[in-house]
Amino acid sequence: MFYLAVIVFCALAFGRLAKLCKLPNVTGYLVAGLILGPSVLGIIPKEAVTNFHLISDMALGFIAFSIGSEFKMSYFKRVGFTPIVIAIFEALLASVAVMLGMLALGNDLAFSLVIGSIAAATAPAATIMVVRQYKAKGPVTETLMSVVALDDAVALIAFGFAVTIAKSLNGGVQENMLLSILEPVWEIVQSLGIGAVLGALFVVPLRWFKKESNRLCLIVGFVFIAIALSNLLDISALLTCMALGGVMVNVCREGDAIMRITDFVTPPLFMMFFAVSGAELELSVIPTIGVVGICYVVMRVVGKMGGAWLGAKIMKAPRAVQKYLGPTLIPQAGVAIGLTLVAQSAVPEYAQVIRAVVLCATFIYEIIGPAVSKFTLQKAGEIVTAPKVKANRAG
How high is the pLDDT of residue 345? Predict the structure, then answer.
C-alpha cells in the first residue's frame, strides 16, 4: 500500500507538470512510473510492480467497458461498416509493413510473420484517456473509439494465423493446423458471447437499485465478473468487457447515465494503472534492439497510418477521418506484450528478440503516443480548447 501511495502522489505531481508542458496527463503518469520504477530510481522494486497486476486488470476492464459503450446501434446505422473496414485495413497493413521490413533486413519468413502480426495490436487505454481529458468530439473521435475496440479482435486473429504458419514453416506438427487457426476465432466468440450475456443480465437488477451509489457497485461487480470469467477460461478480458459495455448501452435505456457513473471510480484507478505501466517499462532493452527494433517502430507507424487512410478512403469516410485517424492509432502496450508471452511458448526460437523489440517499441509508443493523439485531434478541430487547470480534478 505504501508503494501505491507513492505512485498516486507522484503521478498527481507529474500529471500537473505534464499539463504545464501542454502534454496529456497520461504522459505525466507514465513518466512518473518510469522514474519511480526499477529502470531509473528503483524506489518501487520489480517485485512490487509485478504484484500490481490486479490494478492493471481492473483498469483495462473499465477502459474496455467504456470503449464498448461507444458501440451504439444508432451510430452503426449512421456509419455502416466504415469502422470495421478501417480496423481491418489499419491492423493488417501494419502487419504487412512490418513483415516486409523484416524480410528486407534478411530475417526468415516465420519470424517476420509472427512479429508482423503483433504489430497489428493497438493500445486503447492511452488514447481513451486523451479523449476523456480533452473531451474530444467529432467524426475522428467517434471513428477512433470504434476502431480501437475492433483492433484487438483483428490482431488476435492475425496472430493466430501467423503462429500457425510459422510453426508449419519450421517443421512443427501440422495435424491440428485447422484447429490452431480456428482457436483465436473461438476465443473471440467466447469473449463476445460471455460479455453479451453479462450485458443483458446487467439490466435485470437495475429495476431494484436506483441510487447512483448502488448502481456504481453493480457496474464494478459486473466488470469484475467479466474479468474473472475471462481469466478462468483464458480468453480476452478486453473483448469480454467491451461486449459487456456494448450490449448494456444498447439494451438499457439509461445506458448513457450509467456510463457517467463510472467517472466517480475510474480517475484514481487509471492514474495508478498508467503509473504502474510506466514502472514496467524497461530502459535496458533499448540498446539491444538494433536495426530490427527501429524497423518495427517505423514500419508499424507507416502501416497504421497508411491502412487507416486507405480504409477510410475506400469507405468514403469524412476527409478529417482520412487525414487524422492514423496518428491516433500509434500507442501499443498490453495486448502486444501479452502476445509476446504466447509467442514465447509457440515459437521459442524467436521469443527473446520479439520480446525485446516489442518492449522497446511499447516504451517509445506509450511516451509519444498520447502527445501525438492530442496534437492530431487538435488539428482535426475536435479539441477546441485545453481544459483549465482548476476545472480538471484529475490533474
Answer: 63
